[in-house]
Design a protein that fits this description.
Structural class: alpha+beta
Order of helices and strands: HHEEEHHHHHEEEEE
Number of helices: 7
Largest sheet: 6 strands, antiparallel
Radius of gyration: 16 Å
Oligomer: single chain
Shape: globular
Number of domains: 1
Strand content: 15-25%
Low-confidence stretches: 1-54, 58-67
Distance between the termini: 26 Å
Length: about 230
């Protein structure tokens, strides 16, 4: 697990470049593992996320995590998401397990999850690990805290770990992904959820999400390509 996590952290952001057709099944399994400690996700409706949503702002105002940067230095940006639901992302004859996962969220849940995703991507793109950690699920944070303990890293804060293990060469790619991310769907089932969005060069991505105390958190450090 540690080796896989190192590879993910070092390549963070690079997943936006593409992937194989089986990746959505992997994302579904990973989300189930990562979100086992998450509290119940909001119940979606069948028609909500077809509405166009404008997302931005702090998702929860949680406590800052001290790393190489300060979460208070991060200013959330406004993003306009096209919505439209998961139907637009289905691949004929392909594996649509993420696109057909659960049900479409209502507009309130859609916008809240979109805010969390955008804020995570924007903070990560700015190199502000402390701010990015405010939008990462507890299960993911606990995983790389264990990794940091094994490698005897000096800075054991979430932000410090994220900044120290992120590949600087991926900085430009992360900025492009943050700028181009356009959320089209939120699929919810019980405690699990996926945000489906388009990224660099129109690549369709899925990000597992967890609802913790009524606040949406990303359940991975990078989205999984669906196309």
């Amino acid at each position: 697990m540690a080796a896989a996590l190192v590879a993910l952290l070092l390549a963070v952001g690079a997943a936006a470049c593409g992937g194989d057709d089986d990746s959505d099944s992997t994302a579904t399994e990973a989300a189930g593992q990562q979100q086992s400690q998450a509290q119940g996700a909001g119940q979606g409706s069948e028609d909500g996320s077809g509405d166009r949503g404008a997302s931005g702002g702090n998702a929860d105002g949680g406590e800052s995590d001290s790393g190489g940067s300060d979460a208070s230095d991060f200013t959330p940006r406004k993003h306009n998401d096209s919505g439209g639901g998961a139907e637009q992302f289905k691949v004929k004859g392909g594996d649509n397990s993420v696109q057909e996962f659960g049900e479409e969220a209502d507009s309130e849940e859609f916008n809240a999850a979109a805010v969390a995703l955008h804020n995570f991507l924007d903070a990560r793109a700015e190199g502000n690990g402390a701010a990015a950690c405010e939008y990462i699920s507890k299960a993911v944070i606990e995983s790389f805290e264990k990794l940091a303990a094994q490698t005897r890293q000096d800075d054991m804060s979430c932000g410090g770990i994220l900044e120290n293990l992120t590949n600087p060469a991926a900085a430009q790619l992360m900025k492009e992904e943050a700028a181009k991310a356009n959320v089209g769907s939120l699929r919810i089932e019980d405690e699990q959820a996926f945000v489906i969005y388009t990224g660099i060069e129109g690549t369709v991505m899925a990000m597992p999400m967890a609802n913790e105390g009524g606040n949406w958190k990303v359940g991975s450090l990078a989205g999984t390509p669906l196309s």
